[in-house]
Amino acid sequence: MGISAVNTGNNLIYLIVSALLGFMGISGYFGKNNLSKIYVFIEFPQEIYANTSFPVKIIIKNKKRLLPIFLLRLHIAGHSVLFPYADAKSEITKYINIIIPKRGQHTIRDIYISSVFPFNFFTRFRHIEDTFDCIAFPELKKCELISLYEKERLLRGEKTSDKTGFESDIVSIREYVYGDPLKYINWKATAKTGALKTKELSSLLYQPIIIDFDKIAIKDIEEKISCISYAIVQLLKKNSPVGLKIKDKMFEPGNSRNHKMGMLKGLAFYEKNK
Question: Which CATH code, of 3.40.190.10, 3.40.50.720, 2.60.40.10, 1.10.357.10, is assigned to 35-136?
């Protein structure tokens, strides 16, 4: 078109060429600037299970002093999320669900940001150099193992603790405290005193269960790991102390969150170094 303008001396063609070049220049400048000075942070939930969808927290920080961000899309693990607008010196948070197919340590890389701004003619990409690590616990698969341990728990029974709770025999009657369940209000004592009274009960301590990895008769290793993981999670939901013997490592029975995470982490890394 430029050569035609020279040959014909047509000012209109000169104007069109100039406009197109200016248009492309503006598009290139603002498009490149739109992807600059952007920082990406990714936060994972504390519990991630293989082959199970989980939410990832994505934080976009715009470090530019004056210019906002428009139509920014972040690509991660085959998924993408759109950030339509982020003001200068601001941050935007969104969540996206992803799936990690296998247990163990994982590094999330190949993260990109892209934008069609300003004119939607071109899509520009920028690779995020940072990597983010996470641990995927084994996939939870329901199996008959949990039923066996449930029967064992019922056969072994439970014992009463001196600690107060809401499960067993009455220890004492006390003044009502805001938040006490209504079903534990002692209406007889309340009627006598004219003030709300709450039954204070002793708590139950379930007999501990120890899962011996080598004694579980499941041939497929991944199936066994998933089955044991499911049993651990379900038993702990019912406040049963659970222990795990795996190779030379022994997790003594407990029911705290950290204890659960430790056992699941041990199962997540089982034979991963081979």
Answer: 2.60.40.10
How far apart CA 137 and CA 270 sit, in angstroms, is 11
Between the alpha carbon of residue 49 and those of residues 44, 133, 141, 270, the distances in Å are 12, 14, 11, 15
Do residues 72 and 34 lie in contact, with contact meaning Cβ atoms separated by under 8 Å? yes
Q: Is the pLDDT of residue 171 over 90?
A: no
Q: Tell me, what's the pLDDT at 270?
A: 94
Q: Which residue has the higher pLDDT, 191 or 68?
A: 68
pTM over cut 0.90: no
How do residues 189-239 score in pLDDT, each as one tens digit? 878 887 777 776 554 456 788 999 999 989 999 999 999 999 999 888 887
Please say if the pLDDT value at position 188 is more than 50: yes
Give the chain as a DSSP string: -HHHHHHHT-HHHHHHHHHHHHHHHHHHHHHHHHTSSEEEEEE--S--BTTS-EEEEEEEEE--SS--EEEEEEEETTEEEEEEEE-TTEEEEEEEEE---SSEEEEE--EEEEE-TTTSS--EEEEE---EEEEEBPPP---THHHHHHHHHHHH-EEEEEEEEEEEEEEEEEE--TT--GGGB-HHHHHHHSS-EEEEEEEEEEPPEEEEGGGS--SSHHHHHHHHHHHHHHHHHTT--EEEEETTEEEEEE-SHHHHHHHHHHHHTTT---
Domain boundaries, the chain: 35-136, 145-268
- Cα dihedral 146, 147, 152, 157, rounded to 10, equals 100
Q: Inform me whether the pLDDT recorded for 19 exceeds 90.
A: no
- Confidence (pLDDT) at 169: 54
